[in-house]
Write a structure and sequence with these properties.
Blueprint (H helix, E strand, L loop, with lengths): L1 H27 L5 E9 L4 H14 L3 E5 L8 E6 L4 E6 L2 E7 H5 L4 H12 L30 H10 L17 E2 L1
Parallel strand pairs: 1-2, 1-3, 3-5
Antiparallel strand pairs: 4-5, 4-6
Helix pairs in contact: 2-4
The chain binds zinc ion.
Zinc ion binds next to helix 4.
């Protein structure tokens, strides 16, 4: 009885070895990240804030990676500056246009938070308003003093989920793109 139990344990341990090593290899090479290119050449004075917003997402999630587009290539995401309110027009998951609106910047809202918030929309996140400053997608509802540009754990998990799997091509909204203001 005692011997049989030991043998069982050993067999279980041996069986689990290939699984464990397979997981270790998968964890070392997150090659599944979907690369999304962005063109911030039209973002004027917000260029560095946009790059910081993209870097924050790259630090925060594994399954998607925002990368500046190469010259002459068509980007998945276009980022522009204008005098309106910040907004995003996701056309499909990981693609669309973002406007860093000076109206909010002039009111004192943080440009890096605006940038990562709007990129969050392109990554498939809806607004979560009203909400606390710890939530990136609470947007302007967290108030002008809120400068947090980082997604919270739930927001990170949602983006990871959106881009899970090789395709990562789940549609954001319906067939018609909807402009998200703020
Ligand atoms: Zn928003």
């Amino acid at each position: 009885m005692h011997v049989r139990t030991l043998t069982g344990c050993l067999a279980a341990a041996l069986l689990s070895l290939p699984l464990l090593s397979g997981q270790a290899v998968a964890a070392e090479s997150p090659a599944a990240a979907r690369v999304l290119t962005y063109d911030a050449s039209g973002s004027a004075e917000f260029r560095s804030a946009v790059d910081r917003g993209a870097a924050i997402w790259n630090e925060s999630v594994e399954n998607a990676e925002l990368r500046p587009v190469s010259a002459g290539q068509r980007a998945d995401i276009r980022i522009l500056a204008d005098d309106g309110w910040p907004r995003a027009l996701p056309t499909s998951l990981g693609k669309g246009t973002v406007w860093i609106g000076r109206q909010a910047v002039d009111e004192g809202y943080n440009t890096v938070r605006i940038s990562s918030h709007e990129l969050g929309h392109i990554l498939g996140l809806p607004d979560r308003k009203p909400g606390p400053c710890s939530s990136l997608m609470s947007g302007s509802s967290a108030g002008v003093p809120c400068t947090n540009p980082y997604p919270n754990a739930a927001e990170k998990a949602e983006v990871e989920d959106n881009f899970a799997g090789a395709a990562g091509s789940r549609a954001v909204a319906g067939p018609v793109p909807v402009l998200i203001e703020d």
